[in-house]
Amino acid sequence: MRVLQLIDSLEAGGAERMAVNMANVLSDSLEGSYVCATRQEGLLKASIKQNVSYLFLNKQHKIDVQAILKLKRYIKQEQITIIHAHSTSFFMATIMKWLNPHLKIVWHDHYGNSSFLAERPYRVLAFCSRYFSLILSVNPVLETWAKNHLKCKQVVYLPNFAIQEKETVKLTQLKGIPGKRMLCLANLRPQKDHHNLINAFQIVSSQYPEWSLHCVGQDFKDVYSESVYQLVNQLDLQDRVFFYGSCPDTQHIIQQADIGVLSSLSEGLPLALLEYGLGQLPIVATHVGHCSSVFPKACHEFLVLPNQSQLLAEQLLVLMKDLEHRKTIGKLIYQHVLTQFSAVAVRDKLLQMYSQL
């Protein structure tokens, strides 16, 4: 089998990271493992393993004839049999299917706003879905939605997974006092609700002013990110809340942190939580999407309702005041993530599904 992971960009987002992770994990088990970025390159390009072939299309328009022909030639040249399309790249995959009917299309649904599916636009997706051989959904809610709204007969829930690198890049040095750092791995998007997090941090920092909050993720330089910075200034937290943009050394950053937090309004199955877990961080997160699956039952108290800064602050305080409790919770989550979200288990499931196609 020769499988191409198709993704719009290689910026450091969850879907993008999963596309690269899958190509890397499958590279030793397939005859050919490939990554193709259609629109934009990014930090994750450096994470692609040497035995994974890479193509960049530099697509400029919705229907970009040059990009379409370039991908068509590449698929023929490399004798690719399966396109595994992630998120919005499904349209390009469908065009390839029209040009080469023998291709099998797997579409991977990473939709982060799974709490607001009633508002999801899907007319084009529904049309294209008749050409899919398989749909993979990152949580059971998305699986049910695909079965009810799309035209593909085979829909399967496949959890995300995170990979622990043996050697980590060490570039980013977190500010603040070691042992007193809170980390949020999330691009600056409204769905991630940084306002909720910053308001919660304001509450806890009145009791623990030595703690700092570190936000790592892409800044889109838009109205939302501007409003986040304004709130930090308003609350006079500039010396305790720090922004780093996208960083290539996530694992190294996690090693410097003491609590992982995610304050989203909506999620699919966030990779950030799995990465916190592998780094043995204790976590506080909002109870949205499939976040609860990352927490063993003994840690469910650290799941709070979205948009409730006071509740978020209360659970953060439980961890901030007790180092030994932080270590215990971190280890419990680590063991749970290792057993439930192993890359090996997902690889084996994927290989089996590809073979059946």
Report on the structure:
By secondary structure, the chain is an alpha/beta fold. The chain folds into two domains: 175 residues, 3-Layer(aba) Sandwich (Rossmann fold); 160 residues, Glycogen Phosphorylase B (Rossmann fold). 38% of the residues lie in helices and 17% in strands. The chain contains twelve helices and 13 strands. The strands form two sheets. A seven-stranded parallel beta sheet has the order 3-2-1-4-5-6-7, sandwiched between helices. Strands 10-9-8-11-12-13 form a six-stranded parallel beta sheet, with helices on both faces. β4, α3 and β5 form a beta-alpha-beta unit. α6 packs parallel to α7, α6 crosses α10 and α9 crosses α11. The longest helix is centred in the C-terminal third of the chain and has 18 residues. The chain starts with a strand and ends with a helix. The mean pLDDT is 96. GO terms for molecular function: glycosyltransferase activity. This is Glycosyltransferase. Pfam families: Glyco_transf_4, Glycos_transf_1.
